[in-house]
Amino acid sequence: MSLVKSKYRTHKCSELRAVDADKQVILSGWVMRKRDHGGLLFIDLRDHYGVTQLVASDTHLEALQKLKVESVICVHGKVIKRLDELINNKVETGEIEVQISDFEVLSESKVLPFQIAEEDNAPEAIRLKHRFLELRKEKLHKNVLLRSQVTQAVRENLTKQGFTEFHTPILTSSSPEGARDFIVPSRIHPGKFFALPQAPQQFKQLLMVSGFDRYFQIAPCFRDEDARADRSPGEFYQIDLEMSFVEQDDVFLVLENLLVDVFSKFSEFNIPNNPFPRIPYKESMDKYACDKPDLRNSLEIVNCSNVFENSEFKIFREVVAAGGSVKAINVATDKVPSRKYFDDLISNIKKEFGLGLAYLVYEGADVKGPILKFMSEAEKSELLKLTDDTADINILFFVAGVTRDTYQGLAKLRDNLGTDFNKVNLNSWAFCWIIDYPMYEFDDTTGKIEFSHNPFSMPQGGMEALETKDPLEIKAYQYDIVCNGIELSSGAIRNHRPEIMYKAFEIAGYGKEVVEEKFGGMLKAFQYGAPPHGGSAPGLDRIVMLLAEESAIRDVIAFPLAQSCEDLMMSAPSDISTEQLKEVHIRLDLPKEK
User: Fold this and answer.
1) d(Cα 395, Cα 333) in Å, to the nearest integer?
2) d(C-alpha 66, C-alpha 475), whole Å
3) What is the percent of the chain with per-residue pLDDT over 70, rounded to a whole number?
4) Which residue among 40, 208, 476, 542 sits deepest, i.e. has the most Cβ atoms within 10 Å of its Cβ?
5) Three-state secondary-structure class, residue 401
6) What is the pLDDT of residue 456?
7) What is the helix (H) or strand (E) element at residue 31, kind and residue range?
8) What is the DSSP annotation of 310-343?
9) What 3-state DSSP class applies to 501?
10) Please, are residues 328 and 362 in contact by the beta-carbon 8 Å criterion?
């Protein structure tokens, strides 16, 4: 994009090259850096597009020396080609500099609360309070631009695939979708409240009932939950989509097309598997101890409980006898780590997850390890089958316990071992589908059966499964898409039959009247002819976070909330006046200060 010439600039700070030598130009931007060489002052001038080096001497030297960094200036000058030995190949404009003939201060900066041009590790609270300054930092600035570019690419892709963009209401009704709602009091209807949508779930399904075929929206979602590295507190955006007359395969095809397109455009990493692998939930838990497996890591978990059913190793034998399991991870390597490595690993797993960790080292026919004295020859031989016979050394790591209690520790162990032994292909996007989720789960705290995922999912087997099967054995047409160990999206083929929906909610403890109160609009719509439909909603923030190679989602959002769920820059949430409270018929009953 070329600029319309104005009194502020003839060129962007990214544009000038050697071919522009001797041109008279006007540039405007922020004073990023100053380097005083005694009688010669170099300034890096930055705008939205890039950086140009300016040089000042004689007439304006003293005035520019006094100018604080991050002040905004407009300069007039002549483009000078640099000598070959002074060319800076790290910046686009490194072949030239601009000799200042005149300048104007458009806005002078105060002393900065933290450095912009350099990293000074300022506290997060200070940076978020001055987020408008932090957004001037090159990496963060590029991340926000990347977010915009990814959003545009998503729109273009889905439009080509026949989707129509919609906007659904922000003020809606509260619904039990798993997280706390943000509620908004109604002035006109005293004592009643709107809720901000946790997701546009009901509205997008209603659009399918309305006869629209393919819906999408870059949808804002609001959930009153604590912050996590991969989720912004309070609000986030998702690529929400829904399709009529589809089965799982149809949804998968659309999303694979979208994700391959976007990730290929904005990254040079390879996508090793397309179509994406489909892993049943149970298999994922068995092999990776989680439903968000990082498939860049080649290590897998194996159940070897049968080896220890009659073992002399009392700890393992008793675990298996009590209905638990012994799981192993084999690491093929060419070098045995130090004893300290094993001791630290055992200590960390014990401290973080309360699990014991044991190991055996196979070097050909030679076996070593602290638990070797408890192993029979038959057991050692059976465990040898789990190793890689092409490797010089194999290390078997064992975790034993109640199976569901070992998942977190095993997943973390697999991650750690993958990193420590270089088993992770860092230059790839390893996508997979997790399918066949259980429709219900048992909550130990409440002692009740609850939905394990989306309550609007169609159970596999329909009404017959709900009426004849143990609820905990029923699978749903639910699926997650995972990339490099990060869940990008949950989705489902929807339950579009009112009688099946009533029964599904009944099993989860919701009576017919509750279902009609909470989802009356959608149920009513389903009684007038609803198409089979399904969809998903990949997280836009998470996708950009991966593409930007960031570890925290706030680093790809222009104005994120702090971990405390506060907007430190705008001082929100804030107190409101008594008059405002009266207007919405609210009286505060605040907790007493301790």
Assistant:
1) 8
2) 70
3) 98
4) 476
5) strand
6) 85
7) strand 24-36
8) T-S-HHHHHHHHTT-EEEEEEEEESSPPPHHHHH
9) helix
10) no
Phi, psi at residue 442, to the nearest 5°? -95, 125
Grouping H, G, I as helix, E, B as strand and the rest as coil, residue 39 is coil
Assess whether pLDDT exceeds 80 at residue 178: no
Sign (positive or negative) of CA dihedral 53, 58, 60, 63: positive
Residue 217 to residue 238: CA distance in whole angstroms: 8
pLDDT digits (tens, 9 = 90+) for 436-465: 999 999 988 888 999 987 788 999 999 999
234 in the Ramachandran plot: left (φ > 0), alpha (ψ -120 to 50) or beta? Answer: left
8 A C-beta contact, residue 331 and residue 395:
yes
**Tokens of residue 286, six digits:** 């068995």
| Nearest of 125, 120, 31 to residue 73 by alpha carbon | 31
The interaxial angle of helices 138-160 and 248-266, nearest 10 deg, is 140
CA distance 188 to 429: 51
509 Rama sector, left if φ>0, alpha if ψ -120 to 50, beta otherwise = left
* 51-56 and 193-195 beta bridge pairing: unpaired
Q: Is 26 helix (H, G, I), strand (E, B) or coil?
A: strand
Per DSSP, the residues of 544-590 read: HHHHTT-SSGGGG-SSPPPTTS-BTTTTBS----HHHHHHTT----P
Token pair in block for residue 525: 């719509």
Longest dimension (CA), the chain: 92
Number of neighbours of residue 310 by Cβ within 10 angstroms: 12
DSSP readout, 135-200? TTSHHHHHHHHHHHHHHHHHHHHHHHTT-EE----SSB----SSSPPPEEE-SSSTT-EEE--S-S
Q: How many Cβ atoms are within 10 Å of 517's Cβ, its own excluded?
A: 11
Q: What is the DSSP letter of 114?
A: S
Q: Would you say 538 and 255 are in contact if contact means Cβ atoms under 8 Å apart?
A: yes
- Of 236, 227, 298, 242, nearest to 488 (Cα)? 236
Structure tokens at 371: 């638990």
Cα–Cα distance measured from residue 560 to residue 187, given in angstroms and rounded to the nearest whole number: 29
- DSSP for residue 2: P
Q: What are phi and psi of 338, to 5 degrees?
A: -70, 160
Reduce the DSSP state of residue 438 to 3 states and report it.
strand
**CA 495 centroid distance within chain:** 28
Query: Which tokens in the block code for residue 74?
Result: 């407009």
What pLDDT sits at residue 444? 84
3-state helix, strand, coil in the chain (%, to 5): 30, 25, 40
Structure tokens, 498: 């009112």
Count how many residues are written for the chain.
Answer: 594
Pick the closest to residue 126 from 552, 562, 565 (CA basis). 562
In the DSSP assignment, the letter for residue 371 is: T
| Residue pLDDT, tens place only, 356-365 | 999 999 997 7
According to the model, what pLDDT value does residue 453 have? Answer: 79
Amino acid found at 59: T
Residue in 470, 468, 489 with CA at minimum distance from that of residue 542: 489
281 token code pair: 């939930």
